[in-house]
Design goal:
The protein has 237 residues and is α/β, with parallel strands linked by helices. It has 7 helices and 10 strands. The protein has a single domain, classed as Nucleoside phosphorylase domain (Rossmann fold). It has a 5-stranded mixed beta barrel. β2 and β3 form a beta hairpin. Catalyzes the reversible phosphorolytic breakdown of the N-glycosidic bond in the beta-(deoxy)ribonucleoside molecules, with the formation of the corresponding free purine bases and pentose-1-phosphate.
């Protein structure tokens, strides 16, 4: 069933999907990690592919930048295409000195400076959390491979360029890193009763100024991709 943002037909998308923000990263994952790949979407150049990993059927699709964009794509994936396991893979900026460039971050929870949850008319502030089942599996995979990772709370910010160093206030609350999408992903998944998790590679440190190049961000996150694929496969029949 096609939507305004996805041309996939019935059963063209697997129940487990990886969600990088960059559609070219989705293409990279499909070409380098999946077998028997078929492209299911190119609307707005938001590329989506389905293939197999270890004999398990898995999809990968770009989501764009920010909560509004991933909010649209994941809502459609869940409600129109029956996706049950959604794993965001992306980059993040460290705001803790102990979290180094190249390390993995598993987002147990996502805070936000945005207003995505206002639609639910909740009488308070919503705490958006990952699926414990996916989180447990991903942490185990990372540790078995010897990949350095930290688990904790992240910030899904609406702001990339800011007038003030607001990250310092979030750092005081133990926030590990900043990205832009997971809060909406977790809200959509929690509301629908499906599983979601954000796995990140630290691409830069806001504390020290260290960082990776654009090319390294696009193709160099293979540890994160491997962990995400193994986690997705574990929840795919």
């Amino acid at each position: 069933m096609a939507t305004p943002h996805n041309q996939a037909g019935t059963n063209e998308i697997a129940e487990s999907i990886l969600l990088p923000g960059d559609p070219l990263r989705a293409q990279f994952i499909a070409e380098h990690f999946l077998e028997d790949v078929k492209q299911f979407n190119s609307v707005r150049n938001m590329l989506g592919f389905t293939g197999t990993y270890g004999g398990k059927r898995i999809s990968v699709m770009g989501t764009g930048m920010g909560c509004p964009s991933i909010g649209i794509y994941t809502y459609e994936l869940i409600h129109f295409y029956g996706v049950k396991n959604l794993i965001r893979v992306g980059s993040c900026g460290s705001i803790q000195e102990s979290l180094k460039v190249g390390e993995l971050v598993m987002a147990m929870g996502a805070s936000t400076d945005g207003n995505f949850a206002h639609q639910y008319r909740l009488p308070g502030t919503y705490s958006a959390t990952a699926s414990y089942e996916l989180l447990e599996c991903a942490v185990r995979s990372a540790r078995e491979h010897g990949y350095s990772c930290q688990v904790g709370n992240i910030l899904s910010s609406d702001l990339f360029y800011t007038e003030t160093p607001e990250w310092k206030e979030w750092a005081k609350m133990g926030i590990l890193s900043i990205e832009m999408e997971s809060y909406a992903l977790y809200c959509n998944a929690n509301r629908a009763g499906v599983r979601a998790l954000g796995i990140f590679t630290v691409s830069d440190s806001i504390v020290t100024g260290e960082g990776l190049s654009a090319a390294e961000r696009q193709t160099g996150f293979t540890n994160m991709m491997q962990v995400a694929l193994e986690t997705a496969a574990a929840f795919t029949e």
